[in-house]
Automatic annotation (TrEMBL):
UniProt xrefs under SMART domains: N2227
Protein's UniProt name: Carnosine N-methyltransferase
Coiled-coil residue windows: none
GO molecular function, a single term: carnosine N-methyltransferase activity
Keywords: Cytoplasm, Methyltransferase, Nucleus, S-adenosyl-L-methionine, Transferase
Name of the gene this protein is made from: CARNMT1
Domain of life: Eukaryota
Gene3D superfamilies cross-referenced by the UniProt entry: Vaccinia Virus protein VP39
Keyword presence, Membrane: no
Pfam families: CARME (PF07942)
């Protein structure tokens, strides 16, 4: 595993896109990242690219193996038990068919990904037809990516988007109203943009918006949906077939979703929307360049969340705002050989204030879901933290240098719109 600094510009049809993709990872205990020669970087980058392409191609075999296992288990039951439920095997066959269909969509995504980066070619596979086995880890990532289509680009994801994206979008509109600002000049960055819907919605309102994403799983998929899917609800996925437990009805497992629920190409011609590939902290180092940074379910993806806070502080213009919604489900917790600092929200808040951020809005209990299967017998609710913090227009407090400010101001006093758990969001 490595950190790449190669530039990989991903060209979007609707807006020119520049960016960087880093196959991040690797032992990360020190601040210094491993440095490789440019040739080694390029080799590792290619290897990572093809590993993810392989995962997309292997999906069907992986799911068919799960289905076969389920068939074997059922067929090992006493015959009189099997006879009680004559539909079980046909339901399993149906799951197999749904997996075949998902594979067709994944093939289309792969097909459109091979040359998606304008400044980066990944060569050709020696034996392009050969399907190579993938790890369970990569298969899990791929299944999560399939569920991400529900969240971002299906009608079934509307309620979830309302709970996660709407508060952020409304805040942007409150802070930068179109009757007071030329919104096309208000720059909004969405790090960890996933399949791009939040960034797209912000651009749809006329703001200059850039999504940033690191994962090839997400980048391949967002490229496909944003650039190749014009017809509303023309495509189908079966996102729940991988869930064999907690189904009330067999048909719940094989129910489809359609996407995209809107035409992603319907942005106005002068919309300024782009996606940039790469590691947020590596790509964004231009100081004072953004009016707004909007993070949704993102800050817990950090090895060191303070690095994100520091980067956001640096790249915001004086007077710029950071809007955040999400939990703290630290992605690297318990991962071998990975640095992971699991700070509480209280600690992050202290650090933000010490950097100099002014807390303008703070809600410690915003209930949301994330790629929820709304028919499952097991459903998770995230009790998210939401905040809006501002980098002051005139910098007085920086890097904890003004301790008095922190000590003299109890948290609530700095939060004019602090609201308790019972407050409507
Ligand atoms: C939990 S997902 C949230 C996606 C999206 N914001 C949403 O709300 O649906 C976190 C995203 O951040 C991306 N990510 C993680 N580390 C990143 C980094 N260092 N730079 C850019 N993106 C990153 C992941 O690939 C993933 O797509």
């Amino acid at each position: 595993m490595h950190v790449s600094r190669d530039l990989a510009h991903y060209q979007q049809d609707m807006a020119e896109t520049t960016g960087q993709e880093g196959a991040k990872g690797g032992p990360h205990y020190t601040k210094e990242r491993l440095k490789y020669s440019p040739e080694e970087e390029a080799r590792l980058e290619r290897k990572h690219f093809w590993r993810i392409i392989d995962a997309f191609r292997y999906y069907r075999i992986h799911v068919q193996e799960q289905v076969k296992r389920a068939e074997r288990q059922f067929q090992s039951l006493p015959q009189h038990h099997q006879d009680l439920l004559p539909d079980v095997l046909s339901n399993l066959a149906r799951i197999g068919q749904c997996a075949d269909h998902n594979q067709e969509v994944l093939q289309a995504i792969v097909h459109n990904s091979l040359h998606m980066f304008e400044n980066m070619e990944y060569g050709e596979r020696e034996d392009p037809r050969k399907i190579r086995p993938s790890s369970t880890f990569d298969m899990d990532k791929l299944k999560s990516t399939i569920k991400q289509f529900v969240r971002d680009w299906s009608e079934s994801g509307q309620a979830e988007r309302d709970s996660c994206y709407k508060p952020i979008i409304q805040e942007i509109q409150r802070l930068f109203p179109s009757d007071q600002y030329d919104v096309s000049k208000v720059s909004v960055l969405v790090p960890g943009a996933g399949l791009g819907r939040l960034a797209w919605e912000i651009a749809r309102l006329g703001y200059m918006c850039q999504g940033n994403e690191w994962s090839f799983f997400m980048l391949f998929s967002s490229n496909f949906v944003l650039n190749r899917c014009e017809k509303v609800n023309a495509l189908t996925l079966y996102p729940w077939i991988h869930q064999f437990s907690n189904n009330k009805r067999s048909s719940d497992q094989t129910r489809p979703i359609r996407f995209p629920d809107v035409n992603p190409q319907s942005l106005s011609l002068n919309a300024d929307f782009s996606m940039v590939a790469g590691d947020f902290v590596e790509v964004y180092n231009e100081p004072e360049s953004w009016d707004c940074v909007a993070t949704c379910f993102f800050i817990d993806t950090a090895h060191n969340v303070l690095e994100y806070v520091e980067t956001i502080w640096k790249i915001l213009k004086p007077g710029g705002v950071w809007i955040n919604l999400g939990p703290l489900l630290y992605h690297f917790e318990n991962m071998a050989n990975e640095l992971s600092v699991e700070l509480s929200y209280e600690d992050i808040r202290t650090a933000m204030v010490r950097f100099g951020f002014h807390i303008e809005v703070e809600k410690e209990s915003m209930q949301t879901t994330y790629t929820e299967n709304d028919r499952s017998m097991l459903r998770y609710v995230y009790d998210c933290v939401y905040f809006v913090v501002r980098k002051p227009a005139e910098l007085q407090y920086f890097n904890g240098q003004n301790e008095d400010h922190l000590q003299n101001s109890p948290p609530a006093a700095k939060s004019p719109r602090r609201e308790g758990p019972d407050s409507p969001t």
